[in-house]
Design brief:
Helices cover 35% and strands 20% of the residues. The protein is an alpha/beta fold. The chain has 2 domains: 191 residues, Alkaline Phosphatase, subunit A; 158 residues, no CATH class. Helix 2 crosses helix 12 and helix 4 crosses helix 8. The longest helix has 16 residues. The radius of gyration is 21 Å and the shape is globular. The two termini are 37 Å apart.
Length: 361
């Protein structure tokens, strides 16, 4: 079995943060990284890394693929139309706030949205913007807009939500003359959301209001995409949508590697998406990062240690570790015979982070 493991934000983005890196014990991961062949590409988002693994170019129609992954029964009467003739846009609910003279974006990782709240706001958006398209809530925190005019796609160049959550976004807001129509939509949506009773009630309850949308990933789905994978294991709707578009079986993400190893046939190729570290890095929560990586039930125990044992035993013939990070898009190719190269001594992640920061400088 050959396995590709996509683990965004594997390396904490602050190389000199000793509080995070000191005593961070990940022996199996450290060995895999030390003895694997590493390559570095320019930084990319989780979404770009996913679509790249399926051979899709930069600027892929993330919204259409993600919505396809949300759709449990594509032949259902209430299922949204996803085809080469329909153009979709991710219109995710967010909260914007000023902090130390910066405009910070929080996604649903920073606040909760009830299903009823989402449907009420979607209904109001559809009433107000019927000429532009139709909004659809696939879940309480993932919204979409079917564009009536596909020409608007060329105006939308914002990065995916995972690349901006928890970050300052002033420089990322659209400012070109070409984007006037989209900026007007966003401004009107913000005014509508601000005044809506749902948000007034949320603020009265001490909750963050849903005061804006993040518009990204516009486009139409291609008729067919190709993939060498025999299985995709993930809870990420974009990964599930890419699998469905490629005709690849998708499976729920198991809690540990042993389940996958026991299930997969020997001569197969699989993709696993592990997002355990993503929110911790986005919201600068170093304690959550440490716990998710090397805590009692962290990735080291559930994934990296058993995968290294399986690699040594020949149950896995090749392990590719993909890690989009703030430093670079990192890739390690780990093979069984490389694990016996004892002269490649493992390094603590803190030392690796400082080396990566130096290389990226």
């Amino acid at each position: 079995m050959q396995l590709t493991l996509l683990a965004p934000e594997l390396v904490w983005p602050e190389p000199n943060d000793r509080n995070t890196f000191d005593d961070l014990t990940c022996p199996s991961l450290d060995v895999l990284l030390a003895r694997g062949a590493c390559t570095m590409d320019p930084p990319k988002s989780l979404e770009a890394a996913l679509t790249d693994l399926f051979g899709q170019p930069a600027g892929a129609p993330y919204a259409a693929f993600r919505l396809l992954g949300e759709t449990r029964a594509p032949d259902a009467t209430d299922a949204p139309a996803i085809s080469a003739e329909t153009c979709w846009l991710c219109s995710d609910p967010v909260h914007l706030r000023f902090h130390q003279e910066s405009l910070i974006l929080a996604d649903s990782g920073g606040f909760d949205i009830a299903a009823g709240e989402a449907q009420t706001l979607i209904h109001e958006l559809n009433r107000h913007f019927s000429a532009i398209g139709r909004f659809h809530a696939a879940s309480a925190d993932r919204w979409y807009l079917r564009l009536a005019d596909p020409a608007m796609v060329g105006q939308i160049e914002t990065p995916p939500l995972s690349a901006v959550a928890g970050r300052s976004i002033e420089r990322l807001l659209l400012a070109s003359a070409q984007s006037n129509g989209l900026r007007q939509l966003l401004t009107e949506a913000q005014m509508l959301l601000h005044a809506h009773a749902v948000n007034q009630q949320r603020e009265g309850q001490g909750k963050l209001p849903i005061n804006s949308l993040w518009l990204w990933g516009a486009g139409s789905i291609p008729a067919r995409i190709e993939s060498d994978y025999d299985g995709v294991w993930s809870t990420n709707p974009l990964a599930l949508g890419l699998a469905r578009a490629a005709g690849v079986p998708a499976h729920p993400l198991p809690t540990e590697a042993a389940t996958l190893i026991g299930h997969a046939a020997p001569d197969t190729r699989h993709l696993v998406v592990l997002e355990d570290l993503l929110a911790a890095v986005q919201y600068e929560n170093s304690e959550a990062y440490r716990a998710a990586l090397c805590g009692p039930n962290g990735l080291e125990t559930r994934w990296f240690a058993p995968l290294r044992r399986a690699l040594m035993a020949g149950q896995i013939t090749g392990l590719r570790l993909e890690a989009p990070t703030a430093y670079a898009a990192l890739r390690w190719e780990c093979r069984r015979h490389d694990q016996w190269k004892l002269w490649r001594r493992p390094q603590p992640l803190g030392q690796l982070a400082r080396r990566l920061a130096g290389a990226a400088a």
